[in-house]
Amino acid sequence: MTTTVNPPSPEQREGLRDRLRHGREAVAQRWHHAPRWVRWVLLAAVIVFFYALPNKEFYQYLGPIPTPGANFTQVLFTVSIYVLMAVGLNIVVGFAGLLDLGYFGFFAVGAYTVAVLTSPSSDIKTLWPWLLVVPIAIALTMVSGVMLGTPTLRLRGDYLALVTLGFAEMIRIAAVSSPFLKGQRGFNQIPHPPGQYTDGKPIFGVLDARPYYWLVLTLIIVVVIGVRNLTHSRVGRAWISIREDEDAAQLMGVPTFKFKLWAFAAGAAIAGLAGALFAGKQNFVNSQNFELLNSIIILAAVIFGGSGNIVGAIVGGGLVAYMIERFRGIELFGVELYEYRFLFFGLVLVVMMIFRPQGLIPNRRRAAEFKDRRKEVTVGE
Amino acid sequence: MLLEIDDVSLLYGRIQALHGISLTVEEGEIVALIGANGAGKSTTMRAISGIRPVASGRIRFDGEDITKLRADLRVRRGLCQAPEGRGIFPGMTVLENLDMGAYTRRDRAGIAQDLDRVLGLFPRLAERRKQQGGTLSGGEQQMLAVGRALMSRPKLLLLDEPSMGLAPMLIQQIFTIITEINEQGTTILLVEQNAQQALARAHRAYVLETGRIVKSGTGEELLHDPSVKDAYLGVA
Ligand SMILES: Nc1ncnc2c1ncn2[C@@H]1O[C@H](COP(=O)(O)OP(=O)(O)OP(=O)(O)O)[C@@H](O)[C@H]1O
Ligand SMILES: [Mg+2]
After folding, report:
1. Which parts pass through the membrane (chain A) (predicted)?
2. Number of structural domains, chain B?
């Protein structure tokens, strides 16, 4: 690189936003025009970086990136769960255009399924192994998605938002007050995934979060490949057409209800998987893990990143979860910033929606849809 | 008889928009449906394409009762509508929009052939094939909506005000194309505000008033009917 850095003059600074935009577009341009192998190498480098990240020998050289107030590998695990969920919610919100305000409800269904079927504190005492229960958890969340979606997805827009919100709240209240779900006391000794090192020690445990993080990272990659293939198929075209204009989609012969239900169920399944992973990692599940706020955060993360774009969802989910944790342990004028994390978060969102409603890394189509809607608003009926 | 609507009523909540209308379309025809704003023209189209359920009456298409058939399955039977107000996909390019028109089809060769045909009918779209639908001009969007509907290779093409918002030159052009499509073998049911043009091009026509068919006849007859002249053709 031969660029020299000068302090920006006032005129230059005025155009900062534009320049940032141009910069980002230039990066996107370069990326799209780069030869295939360059893209593969860069992608591989990014993936290797994230696999290496939880090792202290590596992250200690990364300056301010590791979180001061919390164990960095634990934080990375939390972040990875959020990323997985953002990828799932992006199918629902970003691709099919369905506003799901209760996405964390499916996460809870997944986590509780694992808890009830594996934990010795459970009333039914099945004590099944974790791995056996994961597919059951995914299937159950899918079924709950279909049950919730069937009556509501025939209705338009706002109803779905309300119903999903109610669903998440119902699950939470059930968790708090039903004796079967154990409320605050919760379920303990939830087993970990199988696997041992050569010396006989189990790979997955509570103390070392790295194997869990690697597992989630691997699953994210698998899910992303699956979602990408799906979006480049007839299914993806159907989702996008529904999002852009549902009536027109129907008039072109797209069975809209069926595809909306599919998107909803696929998103739910991914949240269920995330819940199952979380339950295993924590070893413990109780009613405190499923606050409504989590649903809002994950939705905000998807919109923040640029809904409709897989990379956007990953970056959004990752950044939002990381930022919230990053505030931990930072004091400014004697106040712990962590206490105010949602204030900052809210501020960032408001600013973002004013200046960049399509999200950090928007989808090319989404940008056009936003323009289209704006036109509708200004031209009026 | 390709399409037969018999005594169809339709409700929007408590508002009754159609009061038992009946009409038919024969294979090979252009049939026009004219009427004032709010008469129920678009509603009739919605009933036929199936995006609104009817309250009573029956709809037969191509020898089959489709009254209760889902909208997307009607498309597969050969019934396709270009919606009012264009209704194209704004984020998709012209080609992607056209491709969506062929969503129900799997015959690649046939689709490619129809794409050539549509781009031949609308050279403007051919020039702008990579442009996003939302950035097209109003007239171009209108053409895209018609072209997209054609891509399903319908037996019956439903056009809801294809000339809406177009300059006189373009209106002429659109009607010429509609006639051309019809001559190539597609039956057309056409809703129009532009009664003059529609009646001149149509084989037969119906006049709709507040959800009822009040007149029908050949395009020629209605064009010279005094009451139609008064109400829909301005001072002639
Ligand atoms: N979704 C709806 N909900 C309630 N009423 C509706 C709805 N759509 C249409 N209507 C009413 O039904 C009647 C017929 O409307 P329609 O759109 O069929 O009219 P139109 O003949 O197509 O008029 P235009 O020429 O203005 O397009 C109108 O009175 C309208 O207000
Ligand atoms: Mg109308």
Report:
1. 37-54, 74-96, 103-121, 127-148, 160-181, 212-231, 261-280, 292-325, 337-355
2. 1
